[in-house]
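Hey,
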Amino acid sequence: MDIFFCNNLKSARKGCGLTQNEVAKMLGVVESCYANWEQGRTEPSIGMLRRLCEIFDVSADELLGGNG
């Protein structure tokens, strides 16, 4: 997993004032699943990436470390 993605994901979540548990509930996954994405243990699917972008109001480039 790309460390930039992990850091950007965590930063986006915190910027929205959400907890890992709150985001997990919005996505319909267990908290440990979401936490694993922030810790780089697993990666979200493309569909989940799209949903993360919607929740955090960011582009995929921003989450993935591009110039969004």
